[in-house]
Prior knowledge:
Layout: H1 2-15, H2 22-36, H3 44-50, H4 57-64, H5 70-85, E1 91-100, E2 110-114, E3 119-133, E4 136-144, H6 148-151, H7 154-159, H8 171-184, E5 191-194, H9 196-199, H10 202-210, E6 214-219, E7 224-227, E8 230-233, H11 234-239, E9 247-254, E10 257-267, E11 276-284, E12 292-300, H12 305-313, H13 316-328, H14 340-345, H15 347-356
Parallel strand pairs: 1-5, 5-6
Antiparallel strand pairs: 1-3, 2-3, 3-4, 6-12, 7-8, 9-10, 10-11, 11-12
Amino acid sequence: MGVVAAGLDQLHERIGGRFARSEPRSRVREYVSGLVAGLERKNGWTLAEWAGEVGPDGMQRLLRRADWDVDGVRDDVRAYVVEQLGEPDGVLIADDTGFLKKGTRSAGVQRQYSGTAGRTENCQVGVFLAYASAHGHALIDRELYLPRSWTDDRERCRAAGIPREAEFTTKPRQAQEMIARAIAAGVPFSWVTADETYGQAKFLQAWLEGQDVSYVMAIRCSDTLTMPAGERRADDLIAALPARAWQRISAGAGAHGPREYDWARIPVRPGWERGRGHWLLARRSLSDPGEIAYYACYGPRRSSTADLAWIAGSRWHIEVGHRWHRSRHAAFSWLCSLFRGGLLFRLCPAGAAVEARRACPAFT
């Protein structure tokens, strides 16, 4: 824990100026320290006890009402991650995840699909942006997804502390906003990857290409791609490939060893711009050849199938980050206004995980 503590101290010193008063400035260090401590349960009471406080009021006040620059802390965390992990070949990973909740008052909560549970549940959903490189990975941005049932009810939003200017925004639009912030901040990266929620958003693909940002994003088997003869379904294009088109490639190390699949690709969208290309990429399970995932790709023409497979496999990093969060804070609370608690919680992988990546491979 010595390395972890040193990392948290360094990050706390960086963000200290974002807090208007000394009390929340001191308490945030105790809050984040408690999250990475070996406590059996982590909630307002246990974190307060860890900090030597008699009750949870101070921790709750930090998340809900204390005066601090939320966006400024976000920018500090992102800059810290880039300093520690940044490299030109970095990958940005967009993904959303749900957090089960009871009741109806927590911001954004309703019955909606939760990837965590694999079904529709009463939950909140957050859209996250992660950064991954050969040195490690960490979450660098977040947005709370507000369903229309919330944004159309201004009184409900007011009671939950949601600003009046908050409007309904789709998850792909939220991802686009976060990627734009990363670009504006000079985050070094070469690729963006995401799952079907984002790959099906053609406007997001077009925007990334307009920024000359390479991507590998999952799509549905029924999605169509442009070929010389017209629009063709992804599964039809891949089904027509000969057996020799498939290559066995590892998409990186997983929890149980190399994540090996069979991969194939086919060029799409004729009329490439100079030096760039579009491809349909397919990933086939070794144990069940009928299980095939599809990806729309754009990037340097020299990109190999192995390059594209590696980028597609990079999405695993953000799933690891989500599991890390949930395993360490069962009461992960977004009751506060627009992700204040979630933002502080990101200080754990950004501060502790970045510093401890050599000592604890689970972080990398």
